[in-house]
Design brief:
The complex is a heterodimer of chains A (about 325) and B (about 350). Chain A is α/β, with parallel strands linked by helices. Chain A folds into 2 domains: about 130 residues, Periplasmic binding protein-like II (D-Maltodextrin-Binding Protein, domain 2, 3-Layer(aba) Sandwich); about 150 residues, Periplasmic binding protein-like II (D-Maltodextrin-Binding Protein, domain 2, 3-Layer(aba) Sandwich), CATH 3.40.190. Chain A has 13 helices and 11 strands. The chains are: A alpha/beta (about 325), B mainly alpha (about 350).
Chain lengths: ~325, ~350
């Protein structure tokens, strides 16, 4: 009796709709929702729900086995991997970047920030705009003596993770006294909620510096500064620069848990990062796992070509080739 | 209950014997017994239904205790990690370092209390003033619109307040209000540099606007409920209009006014969105009110979704517990205040 009922139910659920649930990062949400709706349109009966509850929540849900997949802007820590009930494979999906924005009346040229200067501004050690070290990077620019107001994100966010991860790499002092996380104990500055509020504060308050996602700055046509990358080139945040940063990573680890900030490529934009889809392996449900695998292959074949329209950076070929191999090994 | 068998019913034991129906002196002679009377005669014994109703109501009242107990236990259980690691020091520590796993709630408790206090200091006199004007002196034509707009303020979602604060209030404070405060009250140390516009004071101001309608509309209701005879009596004794309002109305209405202030305070303590957008989100205790601060509700809203390790999450849940405890303490103090204010109330002039 029961067996028969169970068979009927499972048959019915297979026939009706294949429903997948995912949860996680907010940063890639626009591209994920586009991908999922297109994939559903091309594959009858498949429905993928994605809740953008934040990277922390995404990791937590996938570890607890309550979703078919998770998503995160922050790589999982060793402790999390150890604690997880299921083995989780991280698949890089797209790339994002963070750019410094500022409001300095009277300065029309785009400012240049060397890594140590940016770190010391956020450490509160460089406090005025006409500081000799800023002037040294910007010859020919007349800098006002205004005080530097520092703005950062108030809520935990992948953007903050990327930014602080970068500062930790370029400034030993930042690494020891602040560190990197989605929320950190900021030495100075005020917190604003979301990219919009950071940009709003910078726009309103003369002498303010902040950081926002590259995608946000591009969409809203906000001016942002140059950064000197590890190769010594002055680069401005751009989609190509981000992809080049990912391509220039040597020895990509098998689990893709790699920070690509301060990447070595000649034109690599240094404050860049992957955002990952977290796939339980073996899957929570065999059929859903198959669909998910189909989706991931579709993402590499078709999805990646659509990301630049939404100002995300696509995976470089070297990485997507490697991901293909990983996918073929998924159970 | 059953209207069809009314002829065979026997009156219930608790029911008083009914007078003869169809009294000629009834309000509507010739119409028979009133609808209520008809129903009571026909419904059968009420004993069971009454008892059932009583227990249902007791159950409803008990759910309140149940909900409070559930919240408290859940918050305590889920914050075990930080409770066992930091103990009572959690509430007095001022470090908030998710990177190194050090957590303390003091700057957040301070921020919540101070921003709510600023809100009360601004909103209470204003709200009582509005209520006095509307009930006692307002021309009839203006009364409707004025009450309507006060209540409209209460219906605006807090995120809208927050946006308005970011784009209108904060620049206004930064450019026009704060410089004046710094010049006049700078010597106290409560209004000193840096002046970002954003900060504890901005949070207090936006909160005061949000709790204004709560306090003012309840105060108005309470003042309207003061009997006219009170006003007339005070006037008859030779009081001026202001003295009449003070001695005859405000004194009589003070329990209700304090009650409305408590409700306003409750909203201020728990307000999240609008505060987050203007308080500056900096976990630090600074004397200057113009400096950025942080509140308990804001830090939970800000950091909960991205808190990935267990200790961090536990710390945020314990902040929720702290908010719960602070709310209970503040409400208990307020109840105590009501009790002190109202205990024995002889006619006094002040």
């Amino acid at each position: 009796m029961f067996l028969a009922a169970a068979l009927i139910v499972s048959a019915a659920s297979q026939g009706l709709a294949q429903k997948l649930n995912g949860a996680g990062a907010t940063f890639p949400y626009p591209i994920y929702s586009k991908w999922f709706s297109e994939f559903s349109a091309q594959h009858a009966g498949v429905q993928i729900n994605y809740q953008s509850i934040g990277s922390g929540g995404g990791i937590r849900q996938v570890m607890a086995g309550t979703v078919d997949f998770g998503a995160s802007d922050v790589p999982m820590t060793d402790a999390q991997i150890k604690d997880s009930k299921v083995k989780i494979v991280a698949i890089p999906a797209v790339l994002g970047a963070v750019v410094p924005i500022y409001n300095l009346p009277g300065v029309n040229t785009e400012l240049r920030f060397s890594p140590d200067v940016l770190a010391d501004i956020y450490l509160g050690k460089i406090t005025s705009w006409n500081d000799g070290r800023i002037a040294k990077d910007n010859p020919g620019v007349t800098l006002p003596g205004a005080k530097i107001n520092v703005v950062h994100r108030s809520e935990g966010s992948g953007t903050t993770f990327i930014f602080t991860d970068y500062l930790s790499k370029v400034s030993p002092e930042w690494k020891s006294s602040v560190g990197s996380n989605s929320a950190v104990p900021w030495p100075i500055g005020i917190g604003a909620k979301g990219n919009e509020a950071v940009a709003g504060m910078v726009r309103q308050l003369p002498g303010t510096i902040g950081y926002v996602e590259l995608i946000y700055a591009l969409q809203n046509k906000i001016q942002y500064g140059y950064i000197r990358n590890a190769a010594g080139t002055w680069v401005k945040g751009s989609i190509d620069g981000v992809t080049e940063a990912a391509a220039s990573v040597k020895n990509m680890p098998a689990d893709y848990r790699v920070s690509i900030t301060n990447a070595p490529g000649k034109n690599a934009y240094p404050i860049s990062s992957f955002t990952w889809l977290l796939i339980p392996n073996p899957p929570r449900d065999g059929n859903n796992g198959k669909v998910l695998k189909d989706f991931l292959n579709w993402m590499l074949d078709h999805g990646e070509s659509e990301v630049t329209a939404l100002y995300y950076a696509p995976l470089p070929k070297s990485v997507s080739d490697k991901v293909r191999v990983t996918l073929s090994q998924l159970k | 209950m059953n209207f069809k068998i009314q002829d065979v019913r026997v009156p219930g034991p608790s029911e008083t014997p009914s007078p003869v129906s169809d009294p000629p002196s009834g309000p509507h002679p010739g119409e028979g017994p009133s609808a209520i009377r008809k129903f009571l005669l026909s419904r059968g014994s009420s004993a069971f239904a009454d008892r059932g109703f009583r227990w249902l109501m007791v159950l409803c009242a008990l759910t309140i205790f149940g909900i409070v107990a559930l919240i408290a236990t859940e918050l305590t259980l889920r914050s075990q990690l930080t409770i066992s690691k930091f103990g009572i020091k959690f509430f007095f520590g001022s470090a908030w370092d998710p990177v190194n796993g050090k957590f303390g709630a003091l700057p957040f408790i301070y921020g919540t209390l101070v921003s709510s206090l600023i809100a009360l200091v601004i909103a209470v006199p204003l709200a009582v003033g509005v209520a006095v004007f509307i009930t006692e002196m307002c021309p009839r034509k203006l009364r409707g619109p004025l009450s309507f707009f006060t209540e409209l303020l209460a219906a605006i979602p807090s995120v809208v307040y927050g946006l308005w604060a970011v784009f209108v209030l904060v620049p206004l404070l930064r450019e026009h209000v704060n410089p004046v405060l710094m010049k006049l009250l700078g010597w106290t140390g409560f209004f000193s540099e840096p002046n970002f516009g954003i900060g504890m004071f901005a949070a207090g101001v936006i909160l005061s606007i949000m709790i204004l309608p709560v306090i003012s509309s309840l105060t108005r209701e309470v003042m309207t409920a003061v009997p006219h005879s009170q006003r007339e009596a005070v006037l008859a004794l030779g009081a001026t209009r202001w003295e009449m309002i003070r001695m005859g109305v405000l004194r009589n209405a003070r329990i209700g006014i304090v009650g409305s202030i408590i409700l306003g305070l409750g909203r201020a303590l728990g307000e999240t969105m609008a505060v987050t957008m203007v308080i500056g989100n900096r976990p630090e205790i600074v004397k200057s009110l113009l400096a950025p601060g942080y509140s308990m509700a804001s830090v939970i809203a800000n950091e909960f979704s991205e808190a990935s390790d267990d200790l961090y999450l536990s710390a945020l849940i314990e902040i929720g517990l702290a908010l719960f405890i602070v709310t209970i303490i503040v409400n208990a103090l307020a109840q105590l205040l009501v009790w002190v204010v109202t205990r024995g109330a002889p006619a006094r002039v002040n």
